[in-house]
Every structure is written in C-alpha cells, then in structure tokens.
C-alpha cells in the first residue's frame, strides 16, 4: 500500500493516539474521547484508515495502519482514534488478493468509502473516479433537537402519496425559492402540500450518488447529461450533500432532519425510494468506490466464472442481498433511517432482487424480505415493493413477506387502456377500481396493499399521457431507444402541445377522468408530482438524465390550469371525507347491508347486470357506503358512479335512491364546475336518466333532502 507511515508532529510522535477499540457497530462513532472506526472485510489482508483535514486535500494528513493482531476481531477491523471530533474526514485503503477467478478485486492503491458513513463531502463534482476527487466520509454527531417528533406512520389506507424528485420541487425559477433544489426548498412548499391535501411525500432516491457518472451527451445542445434521478447509489446511509443549502461536512444530515421535522409538524409523512438492488460501481469495468474494494465476492452476486456480475438490475451489478452480511447491512441501514432520521417508509426499487439467493435464483421465502417485514423497529414503517426486476421477475400480487405493499402497474395499464377506449376493458377496469382482489385477496393482504397509480417518475406525466402518441426521448442521447414503449397513451389529434380548444378540452377531461379513477379507487393512491397542474416533460418518458426545466416543476402552470389543480385538490378532500373510498377490506359483492343491497353492484347504462364481454367501455357502479369501515363513527353515503370512455354521449338510467334520500350530483368531469364544493349540492329531483358526455365520469351521492347546503338550479 502506498501510505504506510503515520503523520508525525514536531516531537516525532504520531499525531493521534489510538486504542484497539471494539468490534461492535460499523461505521464511525463518536465516543467521549475520540472516534471509533469499524469496518467489515473478510478477505482483506491489510486495512489503513486515512484521515483528511480538508476535502480537497490531495493526500491524507495521517495514515493509520490497523494491526491484524490488535485491530481485528473475526471479520471486523476496528480502531479507536483519540482526539478526533465531529466533522473529521476519512477514507480507507484495503489490501487483499486481486484474484478475479475467485471473485476478489482488492486494489490497495484505491481510496474507499466506508459503507456505513453517514455523510460524504461534496465540495466539487466527481466527474471521474480519480482518487484525488473522491468524496470523503464525514464523522457525524447524531444529536438533533427533534422537539418531540416521531414518525407519523399513518395507516396506508388513509394515505394519499405524492411522488416527487426532491430538488425538482424548487429548482425552477417559478418556485421563487430561497434555497432552490434543497431540503429547505421542500420546507418552503409545505403550505402547498397542506392545501393540496396529500398525506405522504415519496422522494426519489436521496442517498448519496454521483450525478456526473453518465457519458452520453444531449444531441440537441451537446451538453453532457447527468444522473438526475439518483438510481445509482454510492452510499446508503448518507443523505445527498448536493441537496444541502448549508454545507457538506455533516450539515446535510441536520438539514434533512429539519425537513422531516417540519413536514411531520405539518402532518406529512416522508417515504424514501431506496435502491438496494445495485450500486454505482457497475460491472467489472466500472469504478472501485467502496463495496468492490472491501469484499467484492460477498457484496455482489457473481456469475459462474466469478469474474463478472449477474445483472438482474440492468445497471451492471446486483447486490447479494440474501448473504447474511448484506442482510445485516440492509437492516442496519433501514433502522438508521427510521430511528435517527425519522422517516415513515421505504419504496424498494426493483424489489424482486431482494428475493434472489446468492446464485440469483428467486426464493419462495427470501430471508431478507421476511426479516424486513418482521423487524421490530420497522414494524410500523411502510414497506412498498416495486415487485419486479430487470431480469424478468414479475411478482405483482405475489411479492413475499406478508405485509408488503406493491406498486400495482396492472392498475396503471388497465386504467390507461380503459380511458383510451381500448375494446373490452370494463372487466379489468372494474377489478382495479375495486381494489385488485384478484391480486391481493388470496394471500391475506388488503386493498391498501395495492399502491394504485396512473403515472410515476418512470414514464409519461399525466399531461403527456393525453398529449403524445409516442415517446420523445431524443434528448437522452440514446436515439429514442430508452424508456417504455407500451405507454397506452393518445394525443387526440395533435402530437404535443396545441392551441386547438377542442383537443385541449378532451385532454383536460381525460386528466380529470384519470384523477377521479385513481383517487376514488379502493387501494392507496399515488400521484406523480405536478400532475395536478399538468406538468409536462415534452413527451420524454425517461427523464433520468435531464436535470433542467424539462424535469423541474414549473409552478406557473397552476395559473395556466387552475381548473385541473382545483379538481385534484377537491377530489383528495372528497376521498378523505368518505370511508367508502378508503375501505380496509375488499368489497364482498354479496354481503347484504342494512338497505338490502350488496356493498357494490356493477351495472350497465340500463341499470341491468353487466355483460363483462361487451366491447364498449361503458360501466356503472352502485356503492353502498354503510359499514364501509366498521371503525368509522357513522355510515357513509351511498354513491352511483358512471364511466363513459367512448366518444359518444351515453344516457344512464339512475337507480332509485335509498329510502328518504335523493341523488345529488357531486362530480361530472364534462361540466363546469366539475366537482362541487363540500357545502354545494345539485339535486337531481328524482330524474330517471343522466346524460354522460363522451369521455366523462360522473359521481352521484345520496343525501337527505333537508340537509343544509347551497343548492344549484
């Protein structure tokens, strides 16, 4: 190894006194007299701790070689360095066999990041993984004045999730942020989130990653593209320093905690998208940053030759998640984010990889998935799986582990095809709308385990779903080959933006139809941030590399599309007022309630039983709101819902209202106003039919005629 001598002071003695320390608790931990450092490596033959004064220093201020006799217990290398304090910078050098045929790739001249580091410096961009440009690990003090805060941990069925890129919220000039693109920029948006009514923010990855790892250029302007989304983790314990407005010597940890505390005070949860399936080290030709140089054969699933990597992630490597060392690492990481950072939940990117064994085979009962679900500290924490991977595993409806929720892409695709009016989609639409019992009932899970979504970061925005027939990813530098091809989108006559009032009317109505279908479906709804005011990505359905206005939130769109914004806000409020749309159990379809009706009855436009094989996408549902939630203080209203995805007006026969009540219009996506305020109603005066315009959704609610309200008409 290049550095072998300790730094000496003027008395020619080591700068810092050391003790062997103890092997418990990985990472760096402050003690009363210094810092304890612990590192795992089973196959290393030598370990050196490098101490730095500044992040830009080209060499360490002190190198401390660990004695295998004194500073190693089993596979744990440990040392207690006296006199060190919060903010100390450090890295490691690790020697061992370079023997790719056995999976070993130790490189003694490399500087390595501690996998358990709680912060990394970010004083300059890491354009290449040159040693001098490596970020430094930071010793962090865990103390923070939480002011009594604890994770909120709302029941899933009560949640409305808002998925967003953290920086994108406040980067655009229209955000008028004092700290654009940062944790504090999120705090500035809290009044907006409260007014919108969402309960939970789900952030794209905020663990430390390298935005400068991409090589391709934007062919339209020649600029090198960046990793904007962050699905290429360097360190799983460290909040990204680039999102800190105050510094990168541990300030990012404090600023993240401040954000969580303020969101919680406003009643808003924090859910993190976390990427345990792979790391930024890529395949055998990628950089050695941390895990590869510490113990490659343990951290990764290797191919049969042991020289290469199984690539179930599509990103060059796959973490060996069911190795006991990795299982401990993952649990330690999740517990840290819950205990020290107070987050409320996690969404696991390509979660099916968590179910693969050390040979890459899918397990029936994967140890790490069960352990996460059963961990006592994580017991109240939300666990959401992206229940597939890049190697063909698809487990939507069958993800193991009991209490896991899942991103339900079946909901996404079936709803898109129904409202696009693809033939014979009423059966699929009804199944998704009523909670996807075909996916979740048999293994004992509940409707809220289905995370329902129409759009997400990965794909079109809602505006683009109704504005583009095809994806337009040319600016990604991959000749438009990247991104999903099966988008089930439509442009209604013009590709992209248009001034045609007729096309714009159809698009706005379809957006309302999608929002209503999402927010009134049984299950847990997730909205893609900005869909509530028609945020566009110009037809790009894979903006992973676009850190610019195409990805940032243009807040002026609220002024341009106030009707969509109001509709979404009022719809969220409507959902949260009515337990019939947040029911904890599946519709029985058979159990008779007090008024003698099934809890849900699917009908055609003539109020007759549905022919599920019919071609036209015309459907109605009568929902009995009584006993929707046995824990509710009162029975809910009854509802009659009408869906018309065709291009023609349809006359629906209206069933008789419950005894002593009348039907009132609450929602009609073809009308203005499209959704009535809470204290405004429109009685239908016992009319027998309702004309539902083309591509429209209507909801009627039963009320006692004498109820206090402002009446229209």
From TrEMBL:
Ranges where the record places region Disordered: 1-27
Domain of life (superkingdom): Bacteria
Domain spans labelled Glycosyl hydrolase family 13 catalytic: 138-575
InterPro entries: GH, GH13_cat_dom, GlgX_Isoamylase_N_E_set, Glyco_hydro_13_N, Glyco_hydro_b, Glycogen_debranch_GlgX, Ig-like_fold, Ig_E-set
Keyword Mitochondrion assigned: no
Keyword tags: Glycosidase, Hydrolase, Transit peptide
Pfam families in alphabetical order: Alpha-amylase, CBM_48
Molecular function terms, GO-annotated: amylo-alpha-1,6-glucosidase activity
GO biological process, one term: glycogen catabolic process
Family: Belongs to the glycosyl hydrolase 13 family.
Protein name (Swiss-Prot/TrEMBL): Glycogen debranching enzyme GlgX
Lineage of source species: Bacteria, Pseudomonadati, Spirochaetota, Spirochaetia, Spirochaetales
């Amino acid at each position: 190894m290049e550095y072998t001598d300790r730094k000496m002071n003027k008395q020619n003695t080591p700068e810092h006194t050391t003790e062997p320390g103890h092997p418990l608790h990985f990472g760096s931990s402050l003690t009363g007299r210094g810092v304890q450092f612990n590192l795992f490596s089973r196959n290393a033959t030598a370990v050196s701790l490098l101490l730095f004064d500044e992040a830009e220093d080209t060499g360490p201020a002190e190198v401390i070689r660990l004695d295998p006799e004194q500073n190693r217990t089993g596979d744990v290398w440990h040392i207690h360095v006296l006199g060190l304090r919060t903010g100390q910078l450090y890295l490691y050098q690790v020697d061992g066999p370079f023997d790719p045929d056995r999976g070993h790739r130790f490189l003694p001249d490399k500087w390595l990041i501690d996998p358990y580091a709680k912060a990394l410096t970010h004083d300059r961009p890491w354009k290449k993984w040159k040693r001098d440009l490596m970020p430094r690990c930071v010793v962090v003090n865990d103390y923070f004045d939480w002011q009594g805060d604890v994770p909120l941990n709302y029941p899933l069925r009560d949640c409305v999730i808002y998925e967003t890129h953290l920086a994108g919220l406040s980067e655009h000039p229209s955000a008028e942020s004092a700290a654009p693109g940062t944790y504090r920029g999120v705090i500035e948006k809290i009044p907006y989130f409260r007014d919108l009514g969402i309960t939970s923010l789900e952030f794209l990855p905020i663990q430390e990653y390298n935005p400068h790892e991409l090589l391709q250029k934007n062919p339209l302007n020649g600029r090198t593209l960046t990793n904007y989304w962050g699905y290429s983790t360097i360190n799983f314990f460290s909040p990204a320093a680039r999102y800190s407005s105050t510094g990168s010597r541990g300030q990012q940890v404090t600023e993240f905690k401040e954000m969580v505390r303020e969101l919680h005070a406003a009643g808003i949860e924090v859910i993190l998208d976390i990427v345990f399936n792979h790391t930024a080290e890529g395949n055998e030709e990628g950089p050695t940053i941390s895990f590869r140089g510490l113990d490659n054969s343990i951290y990764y699933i290797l191919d049969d030759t042991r020289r290469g990597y199984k690539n179930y992630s599509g990103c060059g490597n796959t973490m060996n998640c069911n190795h006991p060392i990795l299982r401990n690492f993952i649990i330690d990481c999740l517990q840290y984010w819950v205990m020290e950072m107070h987050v409320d939940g996690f969404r696991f990117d390509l979660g099916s990889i968590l179910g693969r064994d050390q040979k890459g085979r899918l397990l029936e009962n994967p140890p790490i998935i069960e352990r996460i679900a059963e961990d006592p500290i994580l017991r109240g924490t939300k666990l959401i799986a992206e229940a597939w991977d890049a190697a063909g595993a698809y487990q939507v409806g069958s993800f193991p582990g009991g209490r896991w929720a899942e991103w339900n892409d079946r909901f996404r695709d079936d709803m898109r095809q129904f409202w696009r009016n693809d033939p014979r989609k009423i059966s699929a639409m009804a199944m998704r709308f009523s909670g996807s019992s075909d996916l979740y009932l048999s293994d004992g899970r509940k409707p809220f385990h289905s995370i329902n979504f129409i759009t997400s970061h990965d794909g079109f925005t809602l505006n683009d779903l109704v504005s583009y027939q095809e994806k337009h990813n040319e600016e990604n530098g991959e000749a438009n080959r990247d991104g999903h091809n099966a988008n089930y989108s439509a442009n209604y006559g013009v590709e992209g933006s248009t001034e045609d009032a007729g096309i714009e009317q159809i698009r706005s109505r379809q957006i309302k139809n999608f929002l209503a279908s999402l927010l009134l479906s049984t299950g847990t709804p997730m909205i893609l941030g900005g869909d509530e005011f028609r945020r566009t990505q110009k037809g790009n359905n894979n903006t992973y590399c676009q850190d610019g206005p195409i990805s940032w939130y243009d807040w002026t769109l609220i002024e341009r599309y106030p009707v969509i914004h109001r509709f979404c806000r009022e719809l969220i409020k409507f959902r949260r007022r009515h337990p019939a749309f947040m029911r904890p159990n599946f519709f029985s379809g058979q159990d008779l309630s007090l008024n003698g009706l099934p809890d849900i009855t699917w009908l055609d436009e003539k109020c007759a039983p549905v022919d599920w094989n019919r071609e036209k996408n015309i459907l109605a549902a009568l929902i009995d709101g009584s006993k929707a939630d046995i824990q509710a203080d009162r029975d809910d209203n009854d509802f009659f819902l009408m869906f018309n995805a065709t291009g023609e007006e349809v006359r629906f026969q209206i069933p008789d209202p419950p005894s002593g009540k009348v039907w009132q219009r609450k929602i009609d996506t073809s009308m203005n106003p499209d959704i009535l305020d809470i204290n405004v109603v429109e009685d239908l005066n016992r009319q027998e039919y309702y004309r539902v315009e083309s591509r429209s959704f209507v909801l009627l609610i039963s009320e006692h005629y004498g109820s206090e309200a402002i009446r229209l008409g």
